[in-house]
Amino acid sequence: xxxxxxxxxxxxxxxxxxxxxxxxxxxxxxxxxxxxxxxxxxxxxxxxxxxxxxxxxxxxxxxxxxxxxxxxxxxxxxxxxx
Length: 82
Prior knowledge:
Helices cover 40% and strands 16% of the residues. It has helices at 17-27, 51-60, 70-81, and strands at residues 6-10, 36-40, 64-66. The protein is built from 3 helices and 3 strands, in the order βαβαβα. By secondary structure, the protein is of the alpha/beta class. The longest helix has 12 residues, at 70-81. β2, α2 (51-60) and β3 (64-66) form a beta-alpha-beta unit.
């Protein structure tokens, strides 16, 4: 039987890194803990002013699953248009 995981699921952080990180800390999420899995259901960026902090943190978390939201698709379209 496989190891059970505790899921930490979030979405629509919109570059509000401080609030996002405070919520994860309060919930007890531990980056790198094999028993924890961070699931992000899109809309990571856009609106807030902490995009770089958000990106740096998400890239540093090894135990994650990322699902694109409409803001990620809009960003891709913008990049394709140049």
